[in-house]
Amino acid sequence: MSYVEWAPPPGLDRAVACLWRSAVPDRQDRPDQPDRPGRMPILPDGCVDLIWQSGRGAFLAGPDTGPVANLTPGGRILVGVRLRPGAGALLGMPLTPLRNLRPGLDELRLGAELPGDLAPADALRRLVTLTGRLAEERPADPAMLAAARLLRDPGVRVHELGGRLDLSDRQLRRRFGAAVGYGPKTLHRVFRFRRFLRMAGEGSLGELAVRAGYTDQAHLSRETAEFAGMTPAALVRRAAPWRRPVG
Q: What values do phi and psi take at 61, rounded to 5?
């Protein structure tokens, strides 16, 4: 699978992390070769994506709290707009009910005209236009964007987050769930998991666990099982050919 991403256009960088394009090769996973590793599952990253897939059309991905099987048929092209963690308010609906789902943009009544027979470049242009319109109508919640940025710090204390943002714990939980799809503690854990994935292969698992912010290797193993459905060692082996920049 080929994958490339690039910066969003000016004016959208506050809410959009990147634009991206992916091509799935025609060759399918081989059921007659059980030892051949299958496709890498899609792993939680704290983001949601507006995606167009050739032959299918447009849909929303995420927010994910565990591994999602990559079932895209071979020979398809996907393009997407990845929203920053905390930018979900621009969609005009709480993200919590959409957790781990892939609903079509038409089902969400986002006014998208993105049939599956478009040229990929045209589809991406329309996705960017749609995102820009949504951002103007419902700007991302600045407090939740700030909260997500703070949670990237492995040393931040989640229970102090509301005080740092001048929000009550109740306000923080309500607005954060709507904008991200789950609570601050879960996003903090997802960011820690992504730090490990970014460093994978740069030392022993025990060393990487501590550098990423885990208590020990056993702690890493429990969270890798939850977020990736496999052991840390298996994840490192599987992730190497599929590695992309992670946030």
A: -115, 125
For tokens 């990147």, name the residue: 18
- Cα separation, 139 vs 132, in Å, equals 10
φ/ψ bin of 142: left (φ > 0), alpha (ψ from -120 to 50), beta (otherwise)? alpha
Q: Is 105 exposed, middle or buried (0-12, 13-18, 19+ CB in 10 A)?
A: buried
User: pTM of the entire structure?
Assistant: 0.90
Residue at 74: amino acid letter:
G
Question: What SS3 class is residue 6?
Answer: strand
Question: What tens digit of pLDDT does each residue of 77-122 get?
Answer: 999 999 999 999 999 999 999 999 999 999 999 877 899 999 999 9
Q: Identify the structural domains of the chain with CATH numbers, from first to last.
A: 2-137 (no CATH), 142-242 (1.10.10.60)
**Which residues does 109 contact at the CB level (< 8 Å), separation at least 6?**
none
